[in-house]
Design goal:
Elements (H helix, E strand, L loop, with lengths): L10 H21 L26 H16 L1 H4 L10 H20 L5 E2 L6 E2 L21 H26 L4 H12 L2 H4 L7 H8 L1 H7 L19
Antiparallel strand pairs: 1-2
Helix pairs in contact: 2-5, 2-6, 5-6, 5-8, 5-9
Amino acid sequence: MERPRGQEPSAEGARVCYGRKSVVESQLRVEMPRRNKHASPKKAPASTTSTAFEPRHPALAATGCFALWIAILSIPMLSGAFLASPFNDQYSSGYAYRAWAAEWWKKLGHIPLWNPEIFGGMPFVGGMNGDVLYPTAWLRLVMPTHIAMNLGFVVHYVLAGLFTYWFLRRWRVSWTGAVVGGLAYQLAGVIGSYVSPGHDGKLFVTTMLYVTTALRAVSVFGNGSVCVLTTVSS
């Protein structure tokens, strides 16, 4: 029988329609994956950028690298030999001036200013005889002259590499690059040859090159900009 217009559906028909709707909704809930409201969003994978190698104690490790090669080259010193070649100025005059200065320094209690044994007497310090005013001269007061002179070479070769390393690190060079730079400087042909003719004075000046350069540099600003070097005047 045709249902008259405006007549509400029966209760039984409403239950049937509601039941079908519930079945459809339950199926959709089963098919749809459950979403955790408290789950954190997935993070993008971290970028795998390679970082420069640097040991735990960079300065100490760099010093060990610089001292290793100099110690190998200084093995003759362990047997009591003089590092300088026999055919150089150290044997003819340099060693004699230093040994005499150390002897009279101990006797007088101060640096000898006058040498009475040459030309009837002449100024010793004023005559620029050796490195009597240089800090390594103090070593000759507590050990033999030739050992002190050998240690002067060894110490300054190590410092040459270490000061170069320190200078390059101030320029934001990596640890490996700074160590390689220090080794290349201290073992360079010209610098490495200073020990054979006994040119310790040249080695002392060469060692201090990067220290004086760094001290004359403009300090690094807080924003990390590179320091600008000024001209090193001698």
